[in-house]
Amino acid sequence: MNDILVIQSKIYEIRGVKVMIDKDLAELYQVTTGNFNKAVKRNIKRFPPDFMFQLTKDEYDFF
Q1: CB 33 within 8 Å of CB 23
Q2: Torsion angle, CA of 25/28/30/32, rounded to 10 degrees?
Q3: How far apart are the first and last CA of the chain?
Q4: How far is CA 32 from CA 41, 50, 53, 63, in A?
Q5: 29: Cβ–Cβ under 8 A, 6 or more apart, which residues?
Q6: DSSP for 3-42?
Q7: pLDDT value at position 18?
Q8: How far apart are CA 3 and CA 54, in angstroms?
Q9: Residue 57: predicted pLDDT
Q10: Would you say 36 and 22 are in contact if contact means Cβ atoms under 8 Å apart?
């Protein structure tokens, strides 16, 4: 049950959409953020078009 609370605490609402930040997902999968992003890019066809978006500088600075 504690794991669920940890994951829930890493879900944010940005632009009206519930999201997880790449660094949090990488931590969850125990890989570096760079390797996580490389894996997503290598397998981009497996994800729907709205799977990810890039944060603005202001949004990034918030995290």
Answers
A1: yes
A2: 20
A3: 25
A4: 14, 23, 19, 17
A5: 36
A6: HHHHHHTTEEEETTEEEE-HHHHHHHTTS-HHHHHHHHHH
A7: 95
A8: 27
A9: 93
A10: yes
pTM of the prediction?
0.81
Nearest to 59 by CA among 22, 9, 6: 22
Task: With CA atoms as reference, report the closest residue to 35 among 57, 7, 43.
Answer: 43
For residue 44, what are its two tokens? Answer: 């981009």
pLDDT in tens, 1-55: 688 999 999 999 999 999 999 999 999 999 999 999 999 999 999 999 888 999 9
Return the amino acid letter for 8.
Q
